[in-house]
Amino acid sequence: MDLDPEGIFRDDSDEDEDNVQEREANKDMVVYLVDASPKMFTPATTQDNEKQETYFHTIVNCITESLKTQIIGRSYDEVAICFFNTKEKKNLQDSAGVYVYNVGDREQLDRPTAKLIKDFSCIEDSFMSTIGSRFGITAGSRENTLYNALWVAQALLRKGSVKTVSKRILIFTNEDDPFGTVTGAVKTDMIRTTIQRAKDAQDLGLSIELLPLSQPDEQFDMSLFYADLIGLDGDEITEYLPSAGDKLEDMANQLRKRIMRKRRVKTLSFAITNDVCIEVNTYALVRPTTPGKITWLDSLSNLPLKAERSFICNDTGALLQDPQTRFQMYNDTIVKFSVLELSEVKRVASHHLRLLGFKPLDCLKDYHNLRPSAFIYPSDEVCTCILWESNSTTARSPCCSRRGYFLWWPVGTAWHAHDLSSILR
Q: Start and end of every Ku domain (predicted)?
């Protein structure tokens, strides 16, 4: 049987439209926030027999390798490179200490290009003369460059919907306490406003991740500030720290793990009962490796070509402006359907998956597998849950939340609650 994970749940609609929808659903928008303070330009190792590479040099190499991977494997993803704690400023908000790096006619958040990779790989040679480095948060100053960087990154990710596009901010730094030189009420206010800025971005669907760089003699302490910034608590702090904090040569692998996200095939609604429905994501266990998308360029301007399609009436020769309709002959009568009506006709049920019951595993036969299987895991975006009275079958009130879904049902006169995610595992 031929494996086609790309078409596991594909319907009978137009193939081009399906490709566009799946491409948009798997699209990533990433902003690299790189700390450019003088501390990043110190040697990363203390041993004389090793090559004295700076933290900044390591980060540039890691981002360059990740851009090469993206331009080959996922050419439709969009990236932006932003430095903070810089002398020069270059951003649409005109915020101090933030420099958005770009080349040529490329937009600030756009697909990676060969020129971007080539110029960025050599940026260390001219960084001090063109952009410059400084300590952004100092005593006696109210400037908060980290706050400005988060604000600029959020503005760069403003286009696109979080329902179809994954938006992320990756922070690279070796300073675990950016407000260490500030004291008193000024420090408290800066920490509060910066964390609030990060929470506002996360509420808009933006994911903030940190790739910390440890000093040669000390471990990166996330509990000082960054644990609160990205929303970690307890054991999550120690589990989050990558091994790259001790070995800089593993930094590229750690970055690749953060960039290579699990790509869901499709999002489905799973109806457990008539009143309980959750959203689940499907992941293909086997996916073919395909080359990147070919981009056609104009031979004179070298700009990407955009294909447009128009429909012309056979009788009048005029361009058709109205949406296309489809028809079916029935008893010598033309029955017309719109695209929306046709999709409703082909809809079998209001939900993609419905729980019918439970059977032993030995009842599952090999010939029941019609298509390649997919891994199903609950999503934390949509949940419809009903609270039931202990002595009645009448719904009391709906319970819907982004995280921590609970399903309640009566057992005698007592209430029992179970995490809905654990039920589906």
A: 273-380
- Helical residues (DSSP H) of 97-183, grouped into ranges: 114-121, 123-130, 145-156
Q: Contact at 8 Å (CB) between 183 and 140?
A: no
Which positions ≥6 away from 291 have C-beta within 8 Å? 72
What's the CATH superfamily of 25-259? von Willebrand factor, type A domain (3.40.50.410)
The answer to whether the beta carbons of residues 89 and 97 sit under 8 Å apart is yes
User: pLDDT tens across 266-319, in order?
Assistant: 888 888 887 788 888 888 777 676 666 777 888 888 788 888 888 888 888 888
The strands making up 27-35's β-sheet, listed across from edge to edge, are 98-101, 78-84, 27-35, 165-173, 206-212
- Determine contact, residues 233/227, Cβ cutoff 8 Å: yes
Cite the residue boundaries of each domain of the chain with CATH code 4.10.970.10.
Answer: 264-391
pLDDT confidence of residue 14: 41
The answer to pTM > 0.85 is no
Residue 399 clears pLDDT 60, i.e. is over it: no
